[in-house]
Design brief:
The chain has 457 residues and is of the alpha/beta class. Helices cover 53% and strands 14% of the residues. Helix 3 packs antiparallel against helix 4, helix 4 packs antiparallel against helix 5 and helix 7 crosses helix 10. The chain starts with a helix and ends with a helix.
Length: 457
């Protein structure tokens, strides 16, 4: 089978279109490893980066140039746990096909190589994720070469196996079984493969043949799953850098495993991408900064999970947004009355972590005091509101042309004020035409509420 760049481009583009069409649903059924409502977004950004790099190739580009573009696009564009695993898989598949004639047997071997590469780049491969689909289609493809003689027949077998494998993820992860959904990353991989097959058939429709999609959306209960005791880590951290010194993959994954989970280390030549869920984002960034200049991103999964249930609203009565922290003793009614927004505060009772808001929307008072009675007051702990949280809350206001004032609890009680002050400096550089201020209230609770409401009035 001779390489055809035009056909390869169309297959990737159609795979990406299928992901784009089902992005919202993939976000909604995102329950593992954290219900943070972003699997669809992450896979779309990853696939979109691949398509962008491949489309930039000259029409005369050979397979090796194509594989380079796919791999580089996947590494630099991968987002989140699912996107990074997908990047490791597709890079492995493309690398195996270099300098090989594309036969059915070779394709099966390439799929197996892609699965192996993805597993070796991950700290703890998990059954019930997209890795399960990667394994099943590899085994199925190699078996199918013994009974089918056409390339079209082989691709149909791969797609059938992918859909059956996606169905089975519900049986392999208890959180999926409880929610009545399948793994969103696995479903995303299946959609990508389906898009590639549609391209071969000349089918430009973006409706999936996977019948179960229509059954998922109506009954998804995010709140039911967002307080999982297995969710120990708050931040999704990604770091990308270039270094001439090769990384020791096992040693770097071991470092990440000590301070987090979902650790992935992937590379294309001298460009490396790190992914981890952790409570220490700056430690990760500083560590890999020792290898070279880094670009990093930090996503608050607790906040994403909370927003999946209660999307953030713009609470602003005039040209200035007042944003305070969750230690303010203020009712939802008064938040609306005075036009005050709130950044949640991470709290822990026993093994349960949650993002606290004044209206108790993420965990009820009864649930909270029940956990406190079960685990004892000594198990209760809070975390200061981070710089990232202040940035994430204020940015949408500033983008709409609204000025921002942060009002925090006393700096004598927490580093929350310092984090808000750091965020203020970052935002002033990013939005030089907006007024951005940070106020240390020197108090908390009812006193903080008094300061925030007085600022408004």
């Amino acid at each position: 089978m001779k390489f055809n760049l035009s056909k390869a481009r169309k297959m990737l583009e159609m795979g990406n279109l299928m992901l784009q069409s089902y992005r919202s649903l993939l976000d909604k059924i995102n329950m593992w490893p954290m219900p943070d409502n972003d699997t669809g977004k992450n896979l779309c950004e990853t696939a979109g980066s691949i398509v962008e790099r491949v489309n930039a190739l000259a029409d005369t580009a050979d397979y090796n140039a194509f594989a380079d573009a796919v791999s580089f696009g996947a590494i630099v564009g991968s987002r989140g746990n699912s996107g990074t695993i997908f990047a490791a898989w597709i890079t492995g598949v493309c690398d195996y096909l270099r300098d090989r004639e594309l036969t059915q047997q070779v394709l099966g071997d390439a799929l197996q190589h892609g699965h192996n590469e993805a597993c070796t780049k991950i700290g703890e491969p998990k059954q019930g994720s997209m890795l399960t689909v990667m394994a099943d289609i590899a085994v199925g493809a190699m078996s199918a070469t013994k009974v089918t003689t056409t390339d079209a027949g082989l691709f149909d077998v791969i797609l059938d196996i992918a859909q059956s494998s996606v169905d089975n993820t519900e049986n392999l992860l208890s959180v999926l079984k409880k929610a009545g959904v399948v793994d969103s990353g696995a479903a995303g991989l299946m959609l990508f493969l389906e898009g590639m097959r549609k391209s071969q058939l000349g089918d430009n429709s973006t409706e999936s043949s996977y019948a179960r999609f229509a059954d998922f959306a109506p009954h998804i209960d995010v709140e039911k799953h967002q307080h999982s005791t297995k969710t120990k880590f708050r931040y999704c951290v990604q770091v990308i850098f270039k270094t001439a010194k090769p990384l020791h993959f096992e040693r770097e994954r071991a470092f990440l495993g000590k301070i987090g989970d979902s650790e992935v280390v992937i590379n294309f030549r001298d460009v490396y991408k790190i992914h981890v869920h952790t409570n220490h984002p700056q430690r990760v960034i500083n560590h890999f900064g020792g290898f070279g200049e880094v670009q990093s991103s930090v996503d608050d999964m607790f906040l994403q999970s909370a927003n999946a249930k209660n999307p953030p609203r713009f609470i602003c009565h005039d040209a200035t947004a007042i944003i305070t922290d969750a230690t303010a003793d203020i009712s939802a009614t008064d938040l609306e009355k005075y036009g005050i927004d709130v950044v949640g505060m991470s709290m822990r009772v026993g093994k349960t972590r949650f993002l606290h808001l004044p209206d108790w929307s993420n965990m009820s008072e009864d649930e909270f005091y029940g956990l406190l009675a079960e685990y004892g007051a000594s198990s209760f702990a809070t975390e200061a509101v981070s710089e990232y949280e202040w940035l994430e809350r204020a940015t949408p206001y500033l983008e709409k042309g609204t000025d921002v004032v942060f009002v925090t609890m006393s700096d004598a009680l927490s580093s929350t004020f310092l984090h808000a002050l750091n965020a203020t400096g970052v935002l002033r550089q990013k939005f030089p035409n907006r007024q951005i201020a940070c106020v240390n209230s020197r108090t908390t609770s009812a006193g903080l509420t008094f300061v925030a409401t007085k600022l408004r009035t």
